Amino acid sequence: MKSVTKTGNRLFAALVCLTNLAACHKTMDASLQQNATLAPVSLSNVTVSATGTCDYVFNETAVTAAGYTKVFEDNFDTDLTKWNVWTGGAFNNELQYYQAANLQLQNGNLVITAKKETVTGATTPFDATPKTFNYTSGRIECKTNISASAVTPKIRIVARIKLAAGYGMWPAFWSYGDPWPTQGEIDYLEARGQEPFKYQTNYFYGRAANRNLVKNQVGIITSGVSLTDCYHVYEMIWSQNSLTSLFDGVIVETKTGSYVPNLFGKTERVALNLAVGGDFFSNFNAAQIVTGSMYVDFVKVFKSN
Questions:
Q1: Does domain 3-79+139-304 have CATH number 2.60.120.560?
Q2: DSSP 11
Q3: CA-wise closest residue to 266 among 188, 203, 211, 216
Q4: Quick one: pLDDT at residue 22?
Q5: Is the distance from CB of 270 to CB of 238 less than 8 angstroms?
Q6: Cα gap 51→37, rounded to integer Å
Q7: 33-44 residue pLDDT tens
Q8: Residue among 116, 102, 110 at smallest CA distance from 162
Q9: What is the rounded distance in angstroms from the CA atom of residue 159 to the CA atom of residue 234?
Q10: What tens digit of pLDDT does each residue of 126-145 get?
Q11: Domain limits of the chain?
Q12: ∠ at Cα 179 (178, 182), nearest 5°?
């Protein structure tokens, strides 16, 4: 996502969370070999077609057999104690007020629901100025940090999600650190509810707060199967020189160069949220908003040398 879409989000320091696959690298993890028929791409603002599998089942056995060790997992069976809950408005001209009431655990899923309702609350979690909001939704951030570094050279972040449908819905699965973007931001998935067959990836980095240096690195993944009707698995492998995206077990994109190596050694926390409206949309018409829910089956993080 471009810096104008999430600029202020990365400044919230009170919440703390938890490839060497360079373009010229000739080897792949064993868990990726079966999907090597879809060649990765390393271009700016690319569009990639992907088949997709409705209600795809993640093959964790193949991942661990490839040398990965699981370091974090939440199947959303009991509670949200592994996460911090965002309370307050956000940024990017989004319309929602984030609150705990919009986060529910149902049948082993985290359900984040956007609602049309008028509430008054803090402008942001660190700006208590009262503001009236016409929508509410939910956002959580992991309490445990993740970092691709010399200690953990490769990090693999995975989530199984059914995206929210509806005009103006903006579901996201991503990570970032403070002060933004000095610790970087990696967008594993963000989508528009009115585009049920499409999602995108991105990343950001800067040497000073609020000064993003990364340009034109959006990857647009077009699925042959709806992202809002059933579950899909979204993965990102973060290593020193590349960011490799997988969709339903298939490599769909690899980002290299353009400050990707600068992310190595940075510390980020994983976030899940459902925004309403905002700068992510072009020619946005608030009168057309249709609210929906984002379903998250699990989040897992693995490390490998």
A1: yes
A2: G
A3: 203
A4: 29
A5: no
A6: 12
A7: 333 333 334 445
A8: 110
A9: 6
A10: 899 999 999 999 999 999 99
A11: 3-79+139-304
A12: 95
